[in-house]
């Protein structure tokens, strides 16, 4: 776990350091801008001493021209510097978002454990953005240091007391600002935690809206979200109060610091130690210092929030995988023979099961929990507590999880559809293209690939009877199905999901209860279509549907976590009372 935490920190560090060149450029341009800003009151003092006091119109015009050039340089240096800083912040946030998504989608899993989908989305958006903003904060801090340094040097050259006040007082202000940012950091982390949880609950409720309406539980759902949202609001208000106190106190300290500089400068002018122009410059620099010192207050707040968000991002990136080990390639070609020996994982208790290659095997269960546990084993979402699961004689724990996912597809009963058209949910957006050996595009080969892909899609849609669903929609397969397929009925969604799994055409396909929401006639037709399209390839159907089990080459009854009986559907119906109870009642 410690190595995982270190890996998470390394990704965070790289996301910030990866923008070092861009941030460095922005910082250099910002320093030029701050130098110009600090020189403006100095030049005004020079104008007063050399042109206004001496009533020299020529020098006045010259110095005004110098000021005009200075303001042009200020404008462009600020624009280019800010652009580099903002781009650095956005690029860093983008890098983090990709890292978070890659971790969530990692075949070994684990990042989603204990987190709602909305929480992960919040981490990948708001927290990543806050961490990326650290680049802009660091650059702004460098600007502020440059501005204060230039001001302190000029004040030292003009008056040692004024320069010492700036040099000695600024570190004290920074230290106090850091202390004041600590409560903000703690409360910002709590705020993000609560906000992420509220987002997760909201997404969860929206996804189950149809079920909630069917149960008449809308009011309970509203109350649940109201409590969660209230907790998030309280955390946000606490963070806002901490930020307002931190900002207000820092501004008060900064104002007192500026007043001290102005007071000392005024006394020196009265003593004759400063000319009128130098006094104007000193007061102007004191007012200018307000900007860099306020920037420091903002930087402290940004860093406090960035540290809180970085901790949340690192927690996701460092999440322990659900399954460990396994980097061996999947057997090529994949025959598709599955074997379970003494598998124990939650429901199943010492399961010994052989799934022959190229056959359609049905698995009926007396306990749904056993089915869920079996599916997790076959898809390697989790490893068995004891025993082993093998593919073509190779334990799944030795195989690379990503390669295993391509060879063994587990189509879960509760899989979701994505927002988009029906066709986009069945067919991947990008199809592989084949070309000639020299790498030049081959239009004939591409056309052939397109035709083959279209044929696969048509066969999958027909086998799952999702083509009937497409014909019933206003724009056919191009019709949008809505988020989670909410515009479709339960049976229509199941048919589209089955078509998607069949369209993928993996060497081994495991489907779980694919027809619970369709009518008996359609179910029988789907059963025949499934058998036909998967002929010669390993297929496992975990279901208690008589229609699906009837077309299986062999049926296994999983009873109480153990294999209770084996045979064809007809044989088990005649000979096994437990099977009849599970399947026919």
From TrEMBL:
Its main location: membrane. The keyword Membrane applies. It is found in: Cell membrane. Residues 328-585 form the ABC transporter domain. PROSITE patterns: ABC_TM1F, ABC_TRANSPORTER_1, ABC_TRANSPORTER_2. The chain crosses the membrane at residues 23-48, 60-78, 136-156, 162-180, 248-270, 276-299. Signal peptide: none annotated. Keywords: ATP-binding, Membrane, Nucleotide-binding, Transmembrane, Transmembrane helix. It is a multi-pass membrane protein. GO terms for molecular function: ABC-type oligopeptide transporter activity; ATP binding; ATP hydrolysis activity. Residues 427-451 are annotated as: Disordered. GO terms for cellular component: plasma membrane. The keyword rRNA-binding does not apply. Residues 25-305 form the ABC transmembrane type-1 domain. PANTHER family: ATP-BINDING CASSETTE SUB-FAMILY B MEMBER 10, MITOCHONDRIAL (PTHR43394:SF1), ATP-DEPENDENT PERMEASE MDL1, MITOCHONDRIAL (PTHR43394). This is ABC transporter ATP-binding protein.
């Amino acid at each position: 776990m410690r190595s995982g935490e270190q890996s998470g920190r390394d990704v965070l560090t790289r996301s910030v350091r990866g923008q070092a060149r861009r941030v460095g450029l922005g910082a250099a341009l910002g320093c030029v801008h701050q130098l110009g800003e600090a020189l403006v009151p100095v030049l005004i003092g020079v104008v007063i001493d050399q042109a206004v006091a001496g009533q020299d119109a020529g020098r006045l015009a010259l110095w005004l021209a110098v000021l005009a050039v200075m303001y042009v340089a200020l404008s462009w240096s600020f624009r280019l510097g800010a652009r580099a800083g903002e781009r650095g912040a956005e690029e860093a946030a983008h890098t983090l978002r990709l890292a978070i998504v890659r971790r969530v989608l990692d075949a070994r899993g684990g990042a989603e454990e204990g987190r709602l989908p909305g929480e992960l989305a919040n981490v990948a958006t708001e927290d990543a953005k806050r961490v990326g903003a650290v680049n802009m904060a660091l650059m702004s801090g460098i600007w502020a240091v440059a501005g204060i340094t230039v001001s302190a040097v000029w004040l030292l050259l003009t008056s040692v007391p004024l320069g010492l006040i700036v040099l000695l007082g600024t570190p004290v202000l920074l230290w106090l600002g850091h202390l004041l940012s600590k409560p903000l950091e703690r409360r910002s982390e709590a705020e993000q935690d609560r906000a992420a949880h509220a987002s997760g609950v909201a997404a969860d409720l929206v996804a189950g809206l149809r079920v909630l309406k069917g149960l008449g539980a809308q009011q309970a759902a509203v109350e649940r979200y109201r409590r969660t949202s209230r907790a998030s609001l309280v955390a946000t208000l606490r963070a806002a109060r901490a930020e307002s106190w931190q900002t207000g106190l820092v501004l008060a300290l900064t104002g007192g610091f500026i007043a001290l500089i102005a007071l000392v400068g005024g006394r020196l002018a009265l003593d004759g130690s400063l000319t009128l122009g130098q006094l104007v410059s000193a007061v102007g620099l004191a007012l200018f210092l307000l900007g860099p010192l306020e920037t420091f207050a903002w930087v402290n707040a940004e860093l406090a929030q960035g540290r809180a968000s970085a901790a949340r991002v690192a927690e996701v990136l460092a999440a322990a995988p659900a399954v460990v080990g396994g980097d061996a390639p999947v057997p090529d070609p994949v025959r598709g023979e599955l074997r379970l020996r003494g598998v124990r994982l939650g429901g199943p208790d010492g399961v010994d099961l052989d799934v022959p290659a190229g056959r359609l095997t049905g698995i009926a269960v007396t306990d749904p929990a056993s089915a869920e546990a079996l599916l997790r084993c076959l898809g390697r979402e989790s490893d068995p507590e004891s025993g082993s699961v093998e593919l073509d004689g190779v334990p799944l724990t030795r195989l690379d999880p990503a390669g295993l996912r391509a060879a063994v597809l587990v189509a879960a009963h509760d899989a979701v559809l994505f927002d988009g058209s029906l066709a986009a949910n069945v067919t991947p957006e990008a199809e592989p293209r084949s070309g000639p050996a020299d790498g030049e595009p081959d239009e004939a080969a591409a056309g052939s690939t397109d035709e083959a892909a279209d044929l696969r899609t048509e066969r999958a849609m027909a086998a799952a009877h999702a083509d009937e669903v497409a014909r019933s929609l206003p724009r056919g397969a191009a019709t949008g199905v809505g988020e989670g397929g909410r515009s479709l009925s339960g049976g229509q969604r199941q048919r589209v999901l089955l078509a998607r799994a069949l369209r993928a055409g993996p060497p081994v396909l495991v489907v779980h209860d694919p027809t619970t929401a369709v009518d008996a006639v359609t179910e029988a037709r789907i059963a025949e279509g499934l058998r036909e399209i998967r002929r010669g390839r390993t297929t496992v159907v975990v279901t208690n549907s008589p229609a699906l089990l009837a077309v299986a080459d062999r049926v296994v009854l999983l009873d109480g976590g153990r294999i209770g009986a084996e045979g064809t559907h007809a044989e088990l119906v005649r000979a096994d009372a437990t099977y009849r109870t599970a399947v026919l009642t």
